[in-house]
Amino acid sequence: MGAIKPVDWDQGWEIQDTFYNTLYNKAAHLLKIRLNTLHTRVSYHCALNLLATEGGNPRVVLPAILLHDIGYSQLPETEIKDAFGPKIKNPELQRCHELEGVHLAGKILREIDYPADMIQRVQAIIDGHDTRETAHDRNDMIVKDADKLWRYSFEGFYLNYQWFDLTPRAYMDRLISKIPVWFFTNTAKTSAIEQAEKRRKDLKILK
Ligand SMILES: [Fe+2]
Question: What are the CB-based long-range contacts (under 8 Å, 24+) for 73-77?
């Protein structure tokens, strides 16, 4: 029997829309760290679902979700783990990834001649996407919710509990306890409940 091949997590969740796929590809080299490529694609699809039921402006929401985490690329690789997760060891670094993201997103969007007023709205969402507890408006709510819904996806769940050094059960309990706290929109709350139930069945915690 040959050696077992490691799982290639960074697959699937392709972006069908040509414009947004091009934008994603322009940013993909800045999303390599922390498997942000996969996180971004999953969250993009979550954002599409939220836009369909909650309204919001796709021209603001979709660039914001695609570019929100590109700032991680500017942090020292060995310290990135201190800037996210249930226990943030370095809040300054967490803030730094937001500000670097604002800067880089502006650069990328100006390069493709995106309208200046739209760029400003995208940047306002990226600025504080993790550290700001309130949302500016519906677009901001959708981006915040889509970012967190990733944690309830199959890939997000399995990667995160290992990164955070938690048991699957402990991570599941955390995700369920955070549903009333994290989410702004009803669609995201419903989706998080449904996804958590799926993950729970995956783990055979429920008979
Ligand atoms: Fe994110």
Answer: 73/29, 73/30, 73/31, 73/32, 73/33, 73/100, 73/104, 74/100, 74/104, 75/33, 75/100, 77/33
